[in-house]
């Protein structure tokens, strides 16, 4: 099991749960009914908040179609959150079975409470997941940023990303597709504010997690997957962060009652950091469609 490493190579499970096990009700206050924690596809001129849920479902529909998963027998979502991708896949796109893996126990509780017998959530790491029958397609939506420990050497980090893609290769049938939304970092102009904010992200809110450079990511799946599509969609995530900040501001007293002032301030800060760093092109947010090689 990955929990018995003699040397730490993954971010701590508790560090992940520090962010994702705050409160399902709190996340619903921020994210709205869609409960989708990633970028959305807004049409020009649409209001960020009014069109938020529709923008999220548009993105999910596009990802499911890009994965060739319409009518699929079985799909996998790695870092499945509150199950929105999986629910959309089975309810709208005819997928027969949808499996998600997450480290968050509260996310599993939420999805289980929805009572969809075609959706199954497992509380386990991506490394520990096994399947008797390969998946037709898989997704990983803004989760891979949590899978590699920042304190590793550059070579070790690439090897850990490579281990992830090797695992995906073993889980997906030949010719199947893996679709990701994935943040990478550029070489930004350094300011004191940016240094402080990146330290906050890496040492406090997402302790030990690592956002790679684009070339590190591409190196890690060479030979296992072929790139079908690579598209930078920074604005999809920055707009979502701005919408969530507005949701939180409007219902801030209620949020403080739920989780306390300290947690609310953490979320306000991290959402603002992601919004402005995406807008300033410090971070990318790539939509990546990969074809599994034989």
Structural overview:
The protein has 294 residues and is α/β, with parallel strands linked by helices. It is built from 11 helices and 7 strands. The protein has helices at residues 13-20, 24-31, 52-66, 84-92, 105-113, 154-171, 192-205, 214-221, 234-250, 252-259, 261-279; strands at 74-78, 97-102, 119-123, 135-141, 172-185, 225-232, 283-292. It has a 7-stranded mixed beta sheet with strand order 3-2-1-4-5-7-6. Strand 1, helix 4 and strand 2 form a beta-alpha-beta unit. The longest helix is centred in the C-terminal third of the chain and has 19 residues, at 261-279. It is globular, with a radius of gyration of 18 Å. The chain starts with 12 loop residues before the first helix and ends with a strand. 39% of the residues are buried.
In short:
This protein is an alpha/beta fold and 294 residues long. It has helices at residues 13-20, 24-31, 52-66, 84-92, 105-113, 154-171, 192-205, 214-221, 234-250, 252-259, 261-279; strands at residues 74-78, 97-102, 119-123, 135-141, 172-185, 225-232, 283-292.
What is the strand arrangement across the widest sheet? 3-2-1-4-5-7-6
Mean pLDDT: 94
What is the terminal separation in angstroms? 27 Å
Share in β-strands: 15-25%
Shape: globular
Query: How many helices in DSSP terms?
Result: 11
Report the structural category: alpha/beta
Helix content: 40-55%
Poorly predicted residue ranges? 1-6
Q: Count the E strands.
A: 7
Helix and strand pattern? HHHEHEHEEHEHHEHHHE
- Note the main sheet: 7 strands, mixed
Radius of gyration: 18 Å
């Amino acid at each position: 099991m990955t929990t018995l490493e003699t040397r730490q190579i993954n971010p701590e499970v508790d560090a992940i749960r520090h962010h994702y096990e705050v409160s399902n009700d709190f996340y619903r206050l921020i994210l709205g009914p869609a409960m989708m924690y990633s970028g959305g596809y807004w049409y020009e001129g649409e209001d960020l908040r009014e069109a938020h849920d529709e923008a999220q479902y548009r993105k999910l529909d596009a990802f499911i179609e890009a994965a060739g998963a319409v009518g699929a027998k079985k799909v996998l979502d790695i870092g499945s959150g509150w199950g929105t991708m999986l629910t959309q896949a089975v309810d709208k796109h005819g997928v027969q079975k949808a499996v998600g893996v997450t480290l968050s126990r509260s996310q599993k509780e939420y999805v289980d409470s929805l009572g969809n017998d075609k959706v199954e959530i497992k509380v386990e790491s991506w490394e520990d997941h096994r399947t008797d029958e390969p998946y037709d397609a898989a997704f990983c939506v803004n989760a891979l940023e949590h899978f590699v420990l920042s304190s590793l050497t550059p070579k070790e980090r690439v090897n850990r990303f490579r281990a992830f893609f090797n695992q995906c290769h073993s889980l997906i049938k030949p010719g199947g597709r893996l679709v990701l939304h994935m943040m990478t970092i550029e070489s930004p102009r350094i300011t004191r504010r940016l240094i402080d904010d990146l330290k906050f992200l890496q040492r406090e809110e997402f302790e030990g997690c690592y956002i790679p450079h684009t070339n590190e990511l591409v190196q890690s799946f060479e030979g296992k997957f072929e790139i079908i599509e690579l598209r930078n969609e920074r604005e999809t995530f920055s707009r979502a962060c701005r919408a969530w900040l507005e949701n939180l501001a409007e219902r801030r007293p209620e949020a403080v009652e739920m989780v306390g002032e300290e947690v609310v301030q953490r979320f306000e800060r991290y959402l603002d950091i992601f919004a402005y760093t995406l807008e300033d092109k410090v971070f990318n947010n790539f939509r990546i469609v990969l074809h599994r090689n034989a």
